[in-house]
Batch of 2 targets.
Target 1
Amino acid sequence: MIPDLGRYAVAVLSSYGATLALVAAVIALTLWQGRRVKRQLAEVEARQGKAKTDG
Amino acid sequence: MSVWEYANPKRFMQVSRRVLPLVVGLTVVSLVTGLVWGFFFTPDDFRQGSTVKIIFLHVPTAMMAINAWVMMLVASLIWLIRRHHVSALAAKAAAPVGLTFTLIALLTGAFWGQPMWGTWWAWDPRLTAFLILALFYLGYIALWQAVEDPDTAADLTAVLCMVGSVFAVLSRYAVKFWNQGLHQDSTILKVGEKDPIDVAYYVPLVVCIVGFVLLFVALVLMRTRTEIRARRLSALLARERLA
Amino acid sequence: MMALLLRDLRLAFRAGGGFGLGLAFFLLVAVLVPLGVGPEPATLAKIAPGILWVGALLACLLSLDRIFALDFEDGSLDLLATSPIPLEGVVAVKAFAHWLVTGLPLTVAAPVLGVLLNLAGQGYLWLVVSLAAGTPALSVIGAFGAALTVGVKRGGLLVSLLVLPLYVPTLIFGAEVVKRGATGAEVQVPLLLLAGITAGAVAFLPFAAAAALRVNLR
């Protein structure tokens, strides 16, 4: 499954691991912020009786 | 129809909602293809061994770290000249993504440098310049956070971005002057010349670059949408307080 | 403009005005570094150019937030903005005053601290020359950073974060001049580059700083 990385396995694997972790972190942050703001906006729009303005 | 149509927040929201799934889909396809290809199906380099596989992370993120700043500069200029709010918010949205790419480039560089150069970190011009770039991103983000009024923050960060760009370029040449590096020059653009990068690496690398570009676009679109919603939210809350 | 300069200088020299603070800090750096690094003359001589430049840079940083903050708080910055002097001129004068209060004393005091750090004999001339050529850039860049953050409460730390990356080219070329001077090598190239950065910063950054001030005064 995992290709033979030889003696540099640690370097390669930790590079891929760190990259995936950081990318996952920024994606998670983006989605989390997006959801939170969207929910709050929906609440306030509903409270003020505004038409929903975006998807 | 002019490009500036998309500067209308409402229009931007409509269009980006339709475009976003497409961009996300293409991002996933190209990133997965590129990285799986790069990780599983590339041969080891005869000198660098398997560490050559790091190139598929290191080079695209390093490119995007710089391109993200350039995109912020362009967006800042559009904001200063034409006062389109979407532009300012897009610049704000891009900064954390750019910072992440800068950190990835530094980290993967460290993991690559450890076996190849025998050190995690060297005060090599490129590495140093990237560290300074990370500081610029931090300062930019901090200024956005510190200033309360959104339009003031947009103006100030745009000015900072412009001045910062000049100094970032100056720093790049200053550190080059200061220390000749270990870092090899870019070989991507040398295809067709002597000593090019091998095709076995070139093709998946290009796929990875496309993937990271799309990832950046997708994230910036998402974050800009969030910023626009946040602006609308604070506007509505402000109106509520007045009523 | 002359009156503004004199006013700023008077304020700085008054008790609690901050004059001498930067100088004291510079002295402390020069005293603390040998305590941390150890007293070997050869080591100290080797790192002296860098330490002196970093010390000067940090000492400059200390007093940056004073450039505009006090005038912003008591409203005199609004008066200055509506005065007949263009705001760019106000920025330039205030940056010049800051330099007279910090950069110039640092330049004059640096050779004394060079003795503490065992700087090589040929280096003193270039230390003074490089500081004289480089510190104006530190003041102008700092004024720009201070203008950006003038509306931020407790912006001192933020100023440091914004300004330090902008100081990188000046620091590199400044320290390089001293390092080369101390070893008797050619100094012309870094010195010219250092002076070029200063000239560019002095010429253009007052405009950027004035733009930032206008935004903050809106």
Target 2
Amino acid sequence: MSEWRYWFAEQKGTLLALGIFLVMFIIYTSNHPAGFTANVVQTASNKGVLLAFVAMAQTLVVITAGIDLSVGMIFLLTNCLASWLVVGGPVETTLGVIAVLLVGVLCGALNGAIVIYGRLQPIVATIATGAMYFGIALLLRPFPGGSVNEDLADALTGRLFGVIPASLVTLLATVLIIWVPFSRSVYGRAAYAAGSSEVAAYMSGVPIKRGKFLAYVLAGLLASFGGLFLTFFTYTGEAAYASGNAYTLFSIAAVVLGGVSLFGGRGSVIGAIFGAFAFRTIGDLLFVFDLDPLWQPLFQGVVLLLAVSLGAFALFRVKNRLEWFG
Amino acid sequence: MSDTVTGGDTVSRMPKFLRRADPAVATAFACIIALLIFGSLYSSSFLSPEYLLQQLKVASFLGVIATGMMLVILLGQIDLSVPWTVATGAMMASAAAAFGPMGVALAIPFGIFCGMMIGLVNGIGVAYLRIPSMIITLATNAVAQGLMVVYTGGFSPQDSASEAMRYLATGSLVPGVPNAVIVWALIGAGTVFLLTRTTFGRSIYAIGNRERAAYLSGVDTRRIVMITFAIAGGLSAFGGVLLAGYASKAAQSMGDAYLLPAIAAVVLGGTSILGGRGSYLGTVAGVILITLLQSILSVMQMPEAGRQIIYGVVIVVMLLLYGRAPASR
């Protein structure tokens, strides 16, 4: 019985995110003119999965008590690269996908190397590398364009057996292949430990540096998954500064909604995925209620502001005033 | 660590003003000189007084914004709401200018006031609700963007800047010296006074070093954090007002190009991103350095993509030179 209590305490953030998402999604589908159909679910999941990949990337870094302000730009860069490389026959396409993912890994590794071995603050370092990645993206695609292997794109954004959105299945597979082994490995535990208390982790002989480095590398990989999927949805590559910034911002919002602590050491990728879905659904609520799309940025901003202010309730539980100043 | 000993020897033999100089600030000024030499090799007009004054004028917009950023970074926080605070200041000031003579007179104060309100929300969030500054300022940035999109309908507003705004940004009271440079000098002088001669300024440094210790020493840390964020918001908006005067109108996303340079200028000037350490002289050096770099890249007709890459590389390399955290063990 008590084991359940521990499990519940650990998963509280994730469960809360799941709850918010379910409520929002029920409101969304019940007011949608088409109702709860496979089509509506497919569109919603396609949009949600894009943000979910970027949010997963952000989560890995946030768990180590860092932040990656370049995820949106890695996402753009891999999108632009995929619009060049993921074309042609099956062999070429496969090689293209591998190349795109490799570039994502490289971007993540560069971030990790600068932050961990260069000992720079993650905020400044990733803003700077983000500028580099955006520059390269712009070099690749000065104007929106390009193409993608449409068979693969349609297969991954369509439906399996006519019901299940393929993008959701891909997301699930990514979680099983990347997140589950990572979080159970020594390095995954090291990433958590480093985020929770780096000094204590160091004293306990945990491989912090390698754990954190792996977290940054996997973050780059996950962001490139997002970039690939963006190419599959749009069939083009575009280096739009505003969109890269928006994805970085939304990924942080999704992480916060998903119950991942920005101080590190707490939360999971699963929570961030539900956070991403919830955030997307909230943004789309405006459309089903037929409001002016001009209000969408304001609405999303206010939701974000409220979501981050919710954390302030923890202050009421603080017994010693000094704990305010961490 | 043998070079600290020899380093100490050389340092003690140097004249006093050099000994007191922060190595980061010295590096930044050395880089400015290197850039000027490099630029003059490229084009002979690079060292002409007109060109340099023009650069200072362009730098002053960034300088005003970076001043606010520096105050916040000294606290150990960061202000990511700069892009839309700049745009809000510019748009609201231009909007006020369209409301008759009263509006024209109040345009500049109104723009700054709007920025201070955004800063105040940031400050309350950071100081009283204890939300990490990176998060709350991103959120207020999104809200400010939302408000401006609703207000303008998603297009660049038609209102144009008032005469006073244009005069501040492009005129020159003293012949030869642009007004914008004078404005920056005044704000800079005010900031130096605030930081070095007032309790408020010393408290900012104290909070940046260790907020808990500052609180136990009797400083009302939360009030000071809140006020500092409000000042930073006001300065960002003032930067926006100047920019609107310079371009004679406000534009969507006009502030996007100022977030990264502002942070870079402050950090390159030797201010610790963890707070508590840094001088205004360093920020001035950082601002001039960034502006010169941008200017040289545009003189070389480097496309936007190349500029972004060089920009990122320069910031990372310079920080690796002197902005590294101490090895923890």
